[in-house]
Sequence to fold (393 residues):
Amino acid sequence: MALASGLAADRTTASHALARYRSEFPIFRDRIYLNTCSLGALGERTRRKVAEFLDLWQSRGASAWYDVWWDALGELRRRYGRIVGALPSEIALAPSISVALSAVAESLDYMKRPKVIVTSLDFPTVAYQWLAKQARGVEVVVVESPDQVSVPVEAIARAVDERTALVATSHVYFTSGAIQDIAAVAATAHAKGALCLIDAYQSVGQLPVDVKASDVDFLTAGGLKWLLGGTGIVFLYVREALARRLAPAVAGWFGHRDQFAFDPHALAFHDDARRFELGTPALAAIYAQLGGLEYIEEIGVPAIRAVTAALTEDLIVRAQGLGVRPKVAARAEQRSAIVMLPAADPHAAVRHLASGGVIADARPGHVRLSPFFYNLQDDHGTALERLATHLRH
Fold:
């Protein structure tokens, strides 16, 4: 890889309207954090909400369930719904995307429609869910990417037919940061009578998402990344009419309409998306997500998108000035805040960055950087200068 001798962009501090929030994320006191697409930075509001949960646990024990903790679950469903334009009744809580996908996968009938369409750029959890069901007759079709950046909707359309049960794919590809037109994907699925599920883990929080406008049937995302809530909490959106019609073949007591009847003789699902819920939610994760959502709601996703889009373009231009060719979508409007930088040994490069206080991530053949509203252009200069030093040697 050819590298220029210095950074193309100047190093003067370039601030923006949301830079005032940076001081609420303590990691920036001694680190440069460019890895939100793996794990959002911990904010002080999130820490305080977790402390609030611990204080309630200490002072009230299980009695907190009867009012405060039960209300917290409902509050989180409502706030998740607002983020993506859904009703609270269309939101189910789960501990991971894998669990949410499992609940969906076990609610579909594959007898007449055995095919599930995924793409080669989706996070493997999506494909794994249905590959595990091949012995039961499920046929998984993987639509390949021609450029390893995105997958044309036309290619997905060619794979969908009257035997397709579901198209399951990403809003933002974790391998490139490219944004997929999920409304077009949903229309492609529906044209053949199939359903559409969107893995939006890499989009919700950094990009505006409207489940009604895009007409998707299922959408899942959560706290780990751009919603700043950490591990252990995700949501599953299920279109209202569909939620009443589907009955998952995996179940837990939180999916029961009358869960406190404790009746082992009959299972009566909730009439809404809660029928896809399983066991007792992890309350520490619930509270962490409520804290993280304070930032997202206060700022607003459109404002976050405006800042992160500008940061992304700055990062790309600086990298190009070093002779690096980022693997990103061709047009700025197709790019999310994920920038893939080619590296022969990305893990070694990430270790080198970490030794200088820069936190990034490695994916096959690439170092992955992901600026968010708490980043500054100066972060890019420091990270790229250190990366360039490593790549030269």
Summary: Residues 301-321 form the longest helix (21 residues). The radius of gyration is 22 Å.
